[in-house]
Every structure is written in structure tokens, then in C-alpha cells.
Design brief:
The structure is a homodimer. Chain A is α/β, with parallel strands linked by helices. Chain A has 13 helices and 12 strands. In chain A, 45% of the residues lie in helices and 16% in strands. In chain A, strand 9 (274-278), helix 12 (283-286) and strand 10 form a beta-alpha-beta unit. Chain A is elongated. Chain A binds a DNA duplex through residues 11-13, 21-28, 30-31, 33-37, 40, 55-56, 58-65.
Chain lengths: 339, 339
DNA sequence: CGCCGGTGTGGGATCGATCCCATGTGGAGG
DNA sequence: CCTCCACATGGGATCGATCCCACACCGGCG
């Protein structure tokens, strides 16, 4: 951080002149590529430091046709799941000497498309995305920009992906509920076309099948993304004549809606209703009783995504890979045998 | 999003050739600057669209010496306060046609300095930061890169800042506690050199002074940043022979530590202990009783920061400004008159 | 008839860093 | 003594887009 209050920023040409060498030599001295006599190298570096020279990444990028930035496109930074993912990606990107362009699409396909074009304009080295459609993968694929899908997968076989083993985790947590005696277990789910929803549903079904317990299909409720709509759906579910004895919420937003609705209806947890969540967020360990949840390690997810992306950048033609991370069930007090 | 699977990305030269004009004309047609005959303009644009041409932002930036990216440096994306801020900044930046380079310094001055250099290398148009030292403002100032400090201020008079009116909000919430009869109100604070800590402390003191209530200085506890250390400090506070009847936690992390510690010690809230927090985060409305908190509008904070930064970019020599946003107190069940 | 100004287009330099290639030097070996 | 190679440096083109300037064309007016 050295530099006197120069009017304009120093360029490599100025460094070269101040050190009495050519631009070429200065470049070699600073980057370490090619021959430079050690004393010259040291002199150039000292001069650069004194001038507060910081190489222009855009110029370097233009010449080398290779950037050190990755684009990251997430659905909602206000949701702790995505925020954690961003933190994990950010940390790992920094370790690997990449910078991160972040955009938040709020779950909108239009914004997603717009962000994709921005990433192309910036010529990012690659993109990490929690996709909302298959468009982005296809578009960036055509532009020869590597893409890694995280959390959800829309472009299987086309893009790499880093996912959580939704099926297995959902099955385990459902199995726990069945194991302690629940038979009427509702699944409250966002929607079933995305891999997250589909696989969590499949795991839920598999647990019933494995236990030989019949499944009441009417207990699978699609609650969408709108929190208010979810609360309405859950209220209807809980006030049925034959209500479920347990609710499995397929994401943290739905778990919040379920928790709040249960409180409004005066249903005690776990006495009258057991609750489990897919995705563990801070409030679940703050409330009493704590909410049993499937914990996805967002940091590991982010790190794996960055690693996968960098591998892909270095080997564009390697076969497409899908990485599955396991998730663990954190048991807290929100589950108990049915009354 | 049109483009056949071309091997290489189209450049403006290729667009120009395909349209039968020169690069200059193509540039004018696409950017809208300068004379172009309307039919030519339309033809060039059609060709560009067919080729899936996306202008190279780095080349444009290099030539124009002006970028459309801003750098954003925050302390901790896993903290909902910073995540919300990032969301607000992201949304506003997108509206204003800027892209956002995001970094997370984890509260470390070393990482902050490193990120600052990266932002210089990328020649960002400006930087928004929740600072951890005065270094960044000074360094980027020397590099003639506009900086806006958010939430905390280290470079008063040098950089613009967008802050919350910490003093007033802290005074109001303290006053509420005094008003319902509390006299022994502890302030648990991170540290007192940053403006956030200093001003919240000042507000707390001002409330006592205004009410003419003497203040027991031993009730002001510096708990630092480490959650475990905070819990130890709070436990010591609550197990004193003359414990406080209310705790004012100066940020959401400390509020969490206080909430958990009270539960561990079996102190009922608000029966035996009232709790208020500076900074409202989701769990505070999920727990029972809810926690009374000062709500900072992170979206407004982020939007104001972006607006301020863009104003500064457009008028580098305008006088330095500090914008104060007010905060509101959200009353929930965690406060009651002392026993 | 020639000059002027408005309209429209193209050539070439430029931003900053990189890197291929040519050039230069000195010492060693034939 | 000359050649050859390792070492060391500089010149100039290049990445893609922009933009200043020169130029060409045309109609109108003195």
C-alpha cells in the first residue's frame, strides 16, 4: 500500500521508464515469466512498489483472454441458505485467487437471463448458479463459459453440478418420524419440478415404502414460494378433520411458515405436532423446542462448487460431473411420538 | 439470447464485416453515439443479434477508462445484517446498471487490504465497505477511487458514509427500559472504538442522563467478537450478586449469546430479565417471547450507499457527505417491568 | 460555377499489459 | 579466430472497443 498522492495511476510504462528498462522487461520482472537479470528484477519491483503500481486487471485480461473472475448467481441473499453459500463460495474463491461477481436474481428467470448476459460481457472465467431454469446453462454453454449448478440441477449432462443428497437425507429424516410411531406425516414442499423438490419427495416416499407404511397422498402439499400462500396452505392442512401428526417442511421458509402457523393455532410442538425441516437455519436452534432439521453444509457446498468450476476451467473437455454431498440430521426437541 | 454454436465469440469486427460496414460504423450503430443512417443501424443491430454478439466489457472499460462495476466489501455474509445489506446493494446496483464485485473480509484488516488491492486492480468505479480500519479509505482515496463507508465510519471527512442513527435509537430503546422501571440495565457491547459501539454507548448514557438516573459503570460490558467469549462475559454478568434486571445487547450476535445464556441459567424472559437488541434478525420474531429490537432497514441502507456512491462517481469533487438513516424500535415480549 | 455545411462513413490511434520474435552480448569450444 | 549457444533485453503487434479526425457526397445558395 505505498504511493504518494499521484494524480494518475501508474502504468507499467511509467514503472519501466522510472527503472530505466523497457515495458517488456518490466513485465517480465513483475510477472516472473521469462528471463530477467536478478538485480534488474529487484530494481523494477522496488520502483513499482514505490510508485504504488497495481497492474490493470482488465488490460491483462484483454490481452491474455483469460479472466480471474467468476460470476455467481443466487436466488435470495436474505435467505440464510443462499447467504451461507455465498460466504462459502467467496472464501474459497479468494483462496484460489479468483474474484467474485455476485448477482441475486430473486428467483426470476428474467433477471437470471439478464445476469447471464452481464457475465458474458465481463468474460468471466466461469459461473456458479442456483438455477431457476435450464436457459442459463444452455446459453452459457453456447458461449463456451463453464457453469456449475449448485443446490438444484436443471442441465444434467450439460453442466457440472454440486448437489446435496436430498433423497437420502429426506428418507432418513422421514424414517425417524415413522420410527417413533408417526403414520400421518405431511410433506410441505415448494414445488416438484426442481430436483430439490423431486428428490426430497422421492426420499419421503422411499421411507414409507421401506417401512411398509401406506402413504396418504393428500398429505403432500405444494405450497409454492410465497410465504403467505404457504401459511394458508399449512393452516388448511392442520385444520383438516384428520390432521397430520407430523410435518416435514421441505425448506427453511416453509418450516418457518409451519412453525408460525402451529403457534397461531395453539398446537404445541412436539406434543400435538412434530416438525422437521430440510435445511437448518439459525432460528431453529434458538426457539424452544429446537427444530429437528437436515443440515446442509453451505460452506462445503460453496467450496465444492468453486473447486469443480476451476477444474472445469482447466479441463474444458473433461466429462461432465455431478458431485453429491451428504447432509446430516440434527435432532432437536421438535419431534416426539404421536399422542 | 440468440447464437448458433460458434467456436469463438463474435467481436465487433466480425459484426462489422458481416454487415458490410467498418468497425467505426458498427460501434456507432450499436452504442447509439454519433451519426449512422437508420437503415444501416438496423442492419448492424440485426447482424449483431444473429451472431449473438455481446460487447466485451473489459475492452470497453479499458478504452473508456471508466467501469460499470463497484466493489463491495463486507464483514460476514453469514450474519443476516450483512447479508441483507448485500441484498440491498445488489438490487440497487442492478437498477443502476452496475455490477457488483463482492468480497467478505471476515472482520480481518489483512483481508481488507488485500481486497482493496484487488479492487484497484479491477479499476472498479467505486467501493462500498463496512470498514474495519481507516486504511481502506485512505488507500483508495490516494488511488482516486470513491469510497462509501456503510454502517460504521472510520474515515470521517475523507469518505462519504451512510450510517444508522445509532445514538438516537439506542437512547430510545434504553429510555423504554428506564420508563418501565428498570434501573440496573446492562449494556453488552462489542467494543467501543468503532462508531457503532461508541454511538450506541453514548445513546445509552444519554438516556440515563435525560432520566436523571445514576449509571453503574460496571454494567457496561465489553464482550468482543468471539461468541464464546461473549457468553462467558454475559454469564459472569448475570451471576453477579447484584445482577442487572435488563440487558441491552448492542448487536445481534451478542443478543443471541445473551438469549442462550439466560436460557442456560434458567432466567425467564421477561419475568426475571428483560432483553433488548440493537439489530433485528429473523430468530428474534420466532422465539417466545419475541425479542424487542432496534430494526435497521438494511435494504434502505444498501440503496442509500449505492446512490451515494454513484453521486460521488459523477461528482468527485463535491463536498463529503454523511447520511444518517433512522432506525425504529420493534417492541416484542422480551421486556417487562422488573420484579 | 464554386463554396459551404450537413450528413454519413472509414482509417488509425489509443487504452495497459503481454509475449513473440529479433537483436545483442559474452564466454566457451572447435 | 570464428561459431554457437545461453543469457538478457527491447521493439512492435495484439487483445476488442471507442472515438477523433479526415474525407466523401450531396443539395442549396450566393
Amino acid at each position: 500500500m505505498t504511493a504518494e498522492g499521484v494524480a494518475r495511476r501508474a502504468t507499467i510504462r511509467e514503472v519501466a521508464e522510472a527503472a530505466g528498462v523497457s515495458r517488456s522487461t518490466a513485465s517480465r520482472a513483475l510477472t516472473g515469466h521469462g528471463y530477467v537479470a536478478p538485480p534488474v528484477r529487484d530494481r523494477v519491483r522496488a520502483v513499482a512498489h514505490d510508485l504504488g503500481y497495481v497492474p490493470d486487471a482488465t488490460a491483462r485480461h484483454l490481452r491474455r483472454q483469460a479472466s480471474q473472475s467468476i460470476g455467481v448467481l443466487l436466488s435470495d441473499l436474505n435467505n440464510p441458505f443462499y447467504a451461507g453459500l455465498a460466504a462459502g463460495i467467496s472464501a474459497q474463491a479468494r483462496k484460489r485467487q479468483y474474484t467474485m461477481m455476485l448477482a441475486d436474481d430473486g428467483g426470476s428467470a428474467g433477471v437470471e437471463a439478464e445476469a447471464a448476459e452481464t457475465f458474458v460481457a465481463l468474460r468471466v472465467a466461469g459461473v456458479i448458479v442456483t438455477p431457476v431454469s435450464a436457459e442459463l446453462g444452455a446459453y452459457l454453454g453456447r458461449q463456451r463459459i463453464p457453469v456449475v449448478e449448485v443446490d438444484r440441477q436443471f442441465s444434467a449432462g450439460v453442466c457440472d453440478a454440486v448437489l446435496v443428497d436430498n433423497g437420502s437425507a429426506a428418507q432418513r429424516v422421514t424414517q425417524q418420524l415413522i420410527g417413533i410411531g408417526h403414520r400421518r406425516i405431511a410433506l410441505v414442499i415448494d414445488e416438484m419440478h426442481w430436483t430439490t423438490g423431486r428428490d426430497r419427495l422421492a426420499g419421503y416416499r422411499a421411507a414409507f415404502a421401506a417401512a411398509g407404511v401406506p402413504l396418504d397422498e393428500s398429505l403432500v402439499v405444494t405450497a409454492g414460494w410465497d410465504v403467505e400462500a404457504a401459511r394458508v396452505g399449512i393452516r388448511a392442512l392442520l385444520t383438516r378433520p384428520d390432521p397430520p401428526t407430523a410435518v416435514f417442511a421441505a425448506n427453511n421458509v416453509l418450516a418457518e411458515a409451519a412453525f408460525r402457523t402451529a403457534a397461531e393455532l395453539g398446537r404445541s410442538i412436539p406434543g400435538e405436532l412434530s416438525l422437521v425441516s430440510f435445511d437448518d437455519v439459525p432460528w431453529m436452534s434458538m426457539v424452544t423446542p429446537g427444530v429437528t432439521a437436515v443440515r446442509q453444509d453451505t460452506v462445503a457446498l460453496g467450496e465444492a462448487a468453486v473447486s469443480q468450476l476451476i477444474d472445469r476451467i482447466q479441463a474444458p473437455l473433461a466429462p461432465v460431473r455431478t458431485v453429491l454431498l451428504s447432509a446430516s440430521v440434527v435432532s432437536r426437541g421438535s419431534t416426539a411420538p404421536p399422542a
